[in-house]
Design goal:
Number of domains: 4
Structural class: alpha/beta
Strand content: 15-25%
Shape: globular
Radius of gyration: 28 Å
Distance between the termini: 60 Å
Largest sheet: 6 strands, mixed
Number of strands: 20
Length: 607
């Protein structure tokens, strides 16, 4: 085995109260690619800072192979004292590094080098920080949330760039697809300690579930052993008690072991307060357009959004995603075309900009608006502490100033504020930013159960594939097209990813018109086969039906994962099993029907 480039041994760190890190071990060898997984607040970023030499542990040792170079990407880069982005990137180069690499990496990340760091947007700042750590080609890259604020085009570029490098990687990220594509081993930071496997993130979740199930069984055995020992203590022969002092000591040790056990943290309990159902038609847009000067942001876009749709909007930063969603929801009127909102629309929005939060206000004030200790959730008052716990905030954080919250905690706070309002239309702008993987799972489940309509902007490919039923993507010159299915389905239909040249919609339409004109001049033939109304309707609705059935199957599987369900409630076990069988059968039929109609549609278009 290759000697480690960096090694942490018996790292312990406490910020008062429960230890944050307790005997952590981490070793990274040349070319190794490790993803560091853990909940928000588990100490991932702190551990990465210890590895980078920026934070000292209370106890433990840090070894770095002599001559090995390390570069660390923080979540919030410090641009102070740098006049330009080029100066900032060049400051990260070592004595023997090629100075040209600084400008080259900036160009690759679509920056010129003369930008004022104080004026950078979140995405531009992240790209400048990436250029600084990538330009030197270090032996070890420590990357803390490298995909935050990046658009899909840049994320996919970064994947290819890192995949082609020889540097060892330690990655912290909430982007499942990014981790699955790059990681080769997984370090799980859980309750102050690390468990590690030589497998990438794609196999992590099944392994984690097996570990937790084994841990639960061990605790159950420990509880039974304590009960048996206590029974002996109470009812054993008195003479035996005097002779078996050692056994009594073992009982005390078992009790102490049970007290010292740190159980897993609970899951967030995300639930949107739902209003009365909206009308069947939620939004209808006809040929809408928006321009800023000579630049067309949206041009000739039409869509019908119906109740229950889950629509994702993707595209590079600056393409106009927020402008489009603001027009569709009536927040920003179009320059051209018409927007019609359906009946009984109750909308709740999640803004990606968290600067609107007063950093000096407390967590409770942000949730209640500074009015008492209760928050109105779904039209009913609920104590703020109870509501905070649903989003994994502790009671003692009630008076915590927002300025000390982590990025993940601010993300959960914004979700808590948005979901408290009764709604039948959820509009979410970058809802996944800074959320840990467990909270993302709960958010996905909540959106799957939500009976209203969802429109969201996201750069998380896995999240889009799991949640949305259609994707709207930019095609250049203000043109946007809606594709059925998730992000992967959109790529399959487009024939390429978002990095290629946009589809020339006008030329496609012109080609179709010329074909139609040519066909009209040909001799009359047998009538051409067309899709009837029912077939067209099925093609439009089946992807949504399939997505709902997949979500239903996932829910049934989660219930059957309970190993005690059969013994606790045989009737419920049978009901869930029957429902799962029916949902799987319905899913197979829906997929077969959709495939049959899709093949028919392609044959008709090619005829």
């Amino acid at each position: 085995m290759a000697p480690p480039l960096i090694q942490l041994k018996d790292i312990k760190l406490t910020f008062g109260g429960t230890p944050l890190l307790s005997g952590v071990e981490l070793s990274v060898s040349s070319g190794e690619r490790v993803c560091l997984i853990g909940r928000n607040g588990s100490g991932k970023s702190t551990l990465l800072k210890i590895a980078a030499g920026l934070v000292d542990a209370d106890t433990g040792s840090r070894f770095v192979q002599p001559g090995a170079t390390i570069r660390y990407l923080p979540q919030e880069p410090d641009f102070a004292e740098f006049a330009t982005t080029l100066a900032y990137v060049e400051a990260g180069l070592g004595p023997g590094d090629d100075r040209y690499q600084a400008r080259y990496m900036l160009e690759q990340l679509c920056l010129h080098g003369d930008e004022d760091p104080a004026q950078l947007s979140g995405g531009e700042g992240r790209r400048a920080a990436l250029a600084r750590v990538l330009a030197p080609s270090p032996d070890i890259l420590l990357l803390d949330e490298p995909t935050n604020h990046l658009d899909l085009t840049t994320i996919e570029w970064l994947e290819r760039e890192l995949d082609g490098r020889r540097s060892a990687l330690v990655l912290i990220s909430h982007d499942r697809r990014f981790l699955s594509n790059l990681s080769r081993s997984t370090a799980w930071l859980d309750r102050g300690q690390i468990k590690q496997i030589d497998r990438g993130f794609s196999e992590f979740e099944s392994w984690r579930d097996a570990v937790l199930a084994e841990e639960e069984r061990d605790q159950h055995k420990l509880d039974r052993k304590i009960v048996n020992e206590e029974h002996w203590l109470r009812y054993g022969v008195s003479g035996r008690r005097k002779r078996n002092v050692k056994r009594l000591g073992n009982l005390h040790a078992l009790r102490q072991q049970r007290r010292d056990y740190r159980g897993t943290a609970g899951s967030a309990s995300l639930a949107a307060a739902e209003a009365e159902k909206s009308g069947k038609l939620v939004i209808e847009a006809k040929n809408i357009g928006k321009s800023y000067g000579d630049r067309k942001i949206v041009e000739g876009f039409s869509i019908r959004v119906q109740r229950g749709d889950r629509i994702g909007i993707v595209g590079p930063n600056g393409a106009g995603k927020t402008t489009l969603i603001n027009m569709l929801t009536g927040a920003n009127p179009p320059d051209r075309g018409t927007i019609r909102l359906g009946a009984n629309i109750e909308m709740a929005t999640l803004d990606q900009h968290r600067e609107s939060l007063d950093p000096k206000s407390t967590l409770a004030e942000a949730l209640t608006g500074g009015r008492g200790d209760h928050i109105i959730v779904g039209g009913k008052p609920k104590h703020v502490v109870s509501y905070m716990k649903d989003f994994l905030f502790a009671q003692e954080q009630m008076r915590t100033p927002l300025e000390v919250l982590s990025g993940g905690e601010r993300g959960r706070l914004m979700l808590a504020r948005a979901l408290a309002k009764p709604s039948n239309l959820l509009v979410l702008d970058e809802p996944t930013n800074d959320l840990d993987l467990d909270t993302l799972d709960v958010l996905e489940e909540m959106l799957g159960d939500y009976e209203g309509t969802v429109m969201l902007i996201s750069h998380d490919r896995d999240f889009l594939d799991r949640v949305v039923t259609s994707v709207i993507a930019p095609e250049g010159d203000g043109r946007w097209i809606e594709y059925a299915g998730g992000y992967s389905d959109m790529l399959a239909q487009r024939g390429a990813d978002l990095n290629r040249e946009p589809v020339n919609v006008a030329s496609i339409e012109q080609t179709r018109e010329s074909k139609s004109s040519a066909q009209s001049n040909e001799p009359a033939t047998a009538p051409r086969r067309r899709l009837n109304f029912n077939e067209k309707h099925a093609l439009e609705t089946l992807p949504k039906t399939i997505a709902k059935l997949q979500a239903e199957i996932a829910r049934q599987h989660r219930q059957l994962d309970d190993p005690d369900l059969f013994h606790k409630d045989r009737q419920k076990f049978d009901q869930v099993s029957d429902a799962l069988t029916k949902a799987q059968r319905d899913l197979q039929e829906a997929e077969d029907k959709w495939l049959e109609l899709e093949v028919l549609r392609e044959e008709i278009e090619q005829a």
